[in-house]
Fold:
Amino acid sequence: MTALFALATALLWGLADFGGGLLTRRIPALTVVVVSQTLAVLVLGTVVLATGAWTEAGPQLWYAVGAGVVGPAAMLAFYKALALGPMGVVSPLGSLGVVVPVSVGLLVGDRPGLLQFAGIAVAILGVVLAGGPELRGAPVQRQAVLLTLVAAFGFGSVMALIAEASTTVTGLFLALFVQRVTNVAVGGGALYASVRRGGAALPEGGTGAVRAALPALAFVGLADVAANGTYAIAAQQGPVTVAAVLASLYPVVTALAARGVLKERLRGVQAAGAGLALVGTVLLATG
Structure:
């Protein structure tokens, strides 16, 4: 079950990142974060009311608040990096954040078997190679790499925090709701500050362009929420180290989506990396 939920996380995060990256090429990144997370709050709020999840409020929700504070900064940095592109290079570097939850898992006592340790090493190497990044070049490329590394640390921290925010399914609904409300508050504050400094909150098409993009924004927000949920379940069902590494395969999904939709070409090293990531997945799932 750990492998199943973690791989579902990778699929959902990969598609959410692809959609978010496309949206930030025509809508300011902060607006994408705030609107997509607001839509997620509306849906999660309905779920919390329907399931009575609010009755499970407790001190563990501070982990969700922490994830909600870190998340918008990580998403903003990552979406900006994806907008600079190419997605097939930026997205795999973002998976380096897996180091954070893996380290936490080892510290709290996770002890994967020898085969799973091999799978962790192979999968991480594969994900990094799947980007085939060239770190030399124009300043824009270096800026994209720096933004991605900042985002990676933030994503890894969110993974570690959200895994501690609940112990039941209904409690998870509440934790995700609290996380998203915090996301909106932090992201909204950042958007307000940006506008005060002269930044743009709306694209060239104004509110009409945002309204037209609402289905895509809703998909990004809800896919990201669902990914957080499936990851939390995966981390509760089995070793955090295994769940984190399998979930970190999401860049392969983003790269393949970019290949299929945007016709971005995969270099030889990227194809080899994708293959290694799959081999690592098999080792983790069967170890």
